[in-house]
Design a protein that fits this description.
Helix content: 40-55%
CATH superfamily of the largest domain: Type I PLP-dependent aspartate aminotransferase-like (Major domain)
Number of helices: 15
Radius of gyration: 22 Å
Strand order of the largest sheet: 2-8-7-6-5-3-4
Structural class: alpha/beta
Length: about 400
């Protein structure tokens, strides 16, 4: 067997074995276990996006000029997504990704010198960077709540955050589902805790929409942003930003354009500014109705059925990995959605070098795409994602590959 050939483990199913994999264009020679990073867009959604691009190029002015056909089309998409997350249409703006949504809020927030932004050490690095950038401009500071991992219960998140809130805390930037550790945080309780202390809450829900049922009317955050291109399977560069009505006059997009003084671009200045940031490609947004339609018909039970399917797959896959690696569960099942991080028994010196070697072997020798990284507390992890195109056989191959690389009980 040549080094470049994918391995064929005896007794295993063929690569990308799920019957549902036919709906995606993923490379069948790779076990793609990393939906959580950039998602993967189904064929029918890509086809819908291509049709919108062709319409755009046939008549760019008619298609793109906001006052012609673009704004009504955006409003139609807005209504569908607002219904999905149980929020008023007028409170939903579009951004390119959740990081941009976080930046828009942070860079608009009325910080004063001495204020504090509270984040956690499970937060997405890009968003924590944005918090530091925004805070430093006003003489404010960023405080980290240290959430343990492994973790015993959601109460540990609440305790870590509560310990750091004080009279100077103005904003809590919190994840709904953490990117590095794949934990579902107790968001409703965190929002209630912050509001009791007079602290506003900005939720990075990058992974949540399509993984969990998101009900903004019940959660009651001040700001919430989520990607469409991850678990909603939309095209890349598509996301939404929810802002509570009373705070919308404060929030400006990261690019100021015509909407700043053209009321005709939206029913409020908030929507007018976000509706038009300059020339851009709206096809990822316009393809979202097709993505939602696809997800509703993929498995019995619609999108909720797909969420249940993916969560059960993630839990079963995690169990297989934990058994192979000889590791205890690092978090309770109720904190798992469609992502799960598993600690790797890699310790001692030169951990980063060992992880880099492991990444190279998994990708090159075993043809498995999966994140390998070290957390802020030093714990080495592998993070798996579960989407409809995945199958337990793929996680078994990952488990056996990790054992061969010296990470398991046989290593």
């Amino acid at each position: 067997m040549r080094n470049s050939d994918p391995i064929r483990l005896p007794g295993r199913l063929p690569l990308v074995p799920s019957d549902l994999a036919q709906h995606w264009v993923l490379n069948p020679e790779i076990d793609f276990l990393n939906h959580g990073s950039f998602g993967a867009t189904p064929r029918v959604v890509l086809e819908a996006q291509r049709e919108f691009l062709q319409q755009l190029e046939r008549d760019p002015i008619s298609f793109l000029a906001p006052e012609r056909s673009l704004l009504p089309r955006l409003d139609q998409v807005r209504a569908l997504l607002a219904d999905l997350v149980h929020a008023p249409d007028q409170d939903i703006a579009f951004v390119r990704n959740a990081t941009e949504g976080v930046n828009a809020v942070l860079r608009s927030f009325p910080f004063r010198s001495g204020d504090q932004v509270l984040v956690t050490d499970h937060g997405y690095n890009a968003c924590n960077n944005a918090a530091r950038f925004a805070a430093e401009r006003f003489g404010a500071s960023v405080v980290h709540a240290e959430v343990p991992f492994p973790i015993e219960s959601p109460d540990a998140v609440l305790q870590a955050v509560e310990e750091k809130i004080n009279g100077r805390t103005r904003l809590l930037l919190i994840d709904h589902v953490t990117s590095p550790t794949g934990l579902v945080f107790p968001l409703a309780e965190l929002i209630a805790l912050a509001h009791q202390r007079g602290v506003r809450v900005l939720v990075d829900g990058a992974h949540a929409a399509g993984m969990l049922q998101v009900d903004l009317s019940q959660l009651d955050p001040d700001y919430y942003t989520a990607n469409h291109h991850k678990w909603l399977c939309g095209p890349k560069s598509s996301a939404f930003l929810y802002v509570r009505r009373e705070f919308q006059p404060e929030i400006r997009p990261t690019s100021i354009s015509h909407g700043a003084n053209r009321d005709s671009y939206g029913v409020s200045r908030f929507l007018a500014e976000f509706n038009w940031l300059g020339t851009y490609d709206p096809s990822p947004l316009l393809a979202m109705p097709r993505a939602l339609e696809f997800l509703r018909t993929l498995v019995p039970g619609g999108i909720e059925g797909l969420m249940r399917h993916n969560r059960q797959l993630a839990l079963s896959a995690r169990d297989h990995l934990l058994t192979a690696l000889g590791q205890p569960a690092p978090s309770p099942p109720e904190m798992i959605g469609s992502l799960a991080s598993v600690p790797l028994p890699i310790h001692g010196q030169n951990i980063d070098s060992k992880l880099e070697t492991l990444r190279g072997r998994l990708a090159g020798e075993f043809r498995i795409e999966v994140p390998i990284f070290r957390l802020a507390n030093g714990v080495a992890c592998v993070r798996i994602s579960a989407q409809a195109y995945n199958d337990l056989g793929q996680y078994d191959r990952l488990a056996e590959a990790l054992v061969r690389c010296g990470c398991g009980k046989k290593g």
